[in-house]
Amino acid sequence: MRRPKKGFGVAVGYWSRGRLNAVLSPKRIARNGWFDASAVALPIGDHLDAKRDNRQQLRTLFVVELWHDGCPVKV
Fold this sequence. Notes:
Strand content: under 5%
Shape: globular
Number of strands: 0
Distance between the termini: 33 Å
Structural class: mainly alpha
Order of helices and strands: HHHHH
Low-confidence stretches: none
Oligomer: single chain
Number of helices: 5
Number of domains: 1
């Protein structure tokens, strides 16, 4: 109780296997036209293969894609 406030992490690892792939699929990325699908595939692959921790970048892409479509995927 005496320590400073501390935030908590988002459970990206939990939903990254399913919803992340659905929302950031190359087909969907190309359809929406906001990002280059091949450029998005690299950080997703590295993250899912545990080569890099791309949580922040992927969370940003995820939210922008959901916002663009009016959140059609149940999260």
